[in-house]
Amino acid sequence: MRVAPEAIEEAAKLLYIRALKILPDDIKQGFARLDAGETDGTAKAILATMIENIGVAERTDNLLCQDTGIPIFNVTIGRNVELDGWALKQGIRRGTERATREHPLRSSVVHPITRKNEHTSCGAHVPVINLDFCEEDRVLRLEMIPKGSGSENGSFLQMLIPADGMAGVKRFVVDAAMKAGGKVCPPTIMGVGVGGTSDLCMHLAKVAATRPLGSRCADEEGAKLEAALSEAVNSLGIGPQGLGGDSTAFAVHVEVAATHITMNPVAVNIQCHSARRASATFTPDGVAIGF
């Protein structure tokens, strides 16, 4: 199966706009679940406002949040897929630029030293492109995640050692939730990476934060850690927008990687309540757009 660069470009453009405007169904269901279980009156009022904001944005074809974020594209390539890697990268970049200029969208991307904004949502190493591979035949998946600064600023890394054990991991995650407080626009999805190297651990935390609600860590021990951390974080009383309540997080998600015998890094990356994403799946039958 050959995927044309023009098809990648068009998909990148459409996915960026779609992700900013339409919230995935699993997040909407997450809001309903939190609202049903919330016992604090103020928290319920805030959740109701958030739910109404989602509805207004979708009814009026508007953005869910003014922060268009750092554009991140996760590309998964199956077997027997023919594509030009450089053309893939340039297609994603052109699609991002077109979405920003043609829609138009506010560009949130600037040079880190001069702070100059090219108004394209692009820059050095941006869009961020992550590549992975799967065994499925003639399948190419393109996932777009606009990562806002409010949640991205709630990122933490600690290079623990084996002696710290799981108690150290749990303590670090709970401390991170307390430090983030309301600054990350809760209720959140807290992503936790455990193991690997420092950079892999941070990447896994973001993968975890952007997983669909209801998904479960493939590693059995990681799944147990998810359940324990979800309970612990929601017992902190931070609540929606940090103003108190039971609904601090939709969930805590965990991803794990093998690591060195003398270390055990742990990282936290947080997704705000506007947990936006969109995806396109290319097969010989065409392109399917979803979340």
Automatic annotation (TrEMBL):
Protein name: Fumarate hydratase
InterPro entries: Class-I_Fumarase/Tartrate_DH, Fe-S_hydro-lyase_TtdA-typ_cat
Superkingdom to which the source organism belongs: Bacteria
Organism: Falsiroseomonas bella
Molecular function terms, GO-annotated: 4 iron, 4 sulfur cluster binding; lyase activity; metal ion binding
Residue span(s) of domain Fe-S hydro-lyase tartrate dehydratase alpha-type catalytic: 10-280
UniProtKB keywords: 4Fe-4S, Iron, Iron-sulfur, Lyase, Metal-binding
PANTHER family in alphabetical order: FUMARATE HYDRATASE-RELATED, L(+)-TARTRATE DEHYDRATASE SUBUNIT ALPHA-RELATED
One Pfam family hit: Fumerase
Family statement drawn from the similarity comment of this UniProt entry: Belongs to the class-I fumarase family.
